[in-house]
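Record minuted for completeness.

…
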Amino acid sequence: MNYISSLDNKFFKDICNLKNKRYRYLNRSYLIEGIRFVEEAIKNNCIIKYIIVDENKKHDIIEKLELHKLHKKVIIFSETLFSKVKQTENAQGVIACIEMKDNYKEFRFCEGIYFLIDKIQDPGNLGTIIRTAVAVNALGVIIVKGTVDLYNDKVLRATMGSIFKINIYFVDDYKFLYDFIDNNFKFIIADSGGGNIYFKENLKGRLVLAVGNEGNGLSDEIKEIPHTKVCIPMSNDLESLNVAQAMSIIAFEYIRQNYI
């Protein structure tokens, strides 16, 4: 295990740079933090480039994660260096550098549900939606260009490790949706402005469920594609729910109609 304490060390600077989106994608790597998160990465056979440990917690971390059994490169950072890399206030003393998976290129046109995320900006919303996708065993999460970065630290923490358990697709436009329609998928849009009440709509079979930007909703281009709008009825003059809440409610209605 290597020990690093110098602020001028190149490896330390490279790790710090991974907090920058541009550098993450340039190097196809991102950081995760915390014992449970790193455990999930190990359990799900992620490609772990490095595991970085705070020198003050190294004995507990190495024992807890059984790092001596892993064929991973473990780097010990001084307390000062670790404090500059960590992204949580109450850090647990361990950070892993993970290699990004190759983008999924081909969709599976089979029974199930896909989530389509159209330019939402709140990291917590995206992370929560990914957790929901895993909970309902979705076929994948489709992320449209302009959405908050998947590898943003706040997004990653909100996924609670579920990012390792779901297929993620990155798309630049909406033309791919016609392939879904040609393969008998229903295209369902969650729209607080109106539409059929979600539990009265037939959600059985193959489905793409789409939610849009927190402020502006779905893009105009997406509304040009044949779709069905659904809404969630509200009480007490409430206009809408959080976008992640709305997607969860509709997704579990999909589960109820198909499997219960």
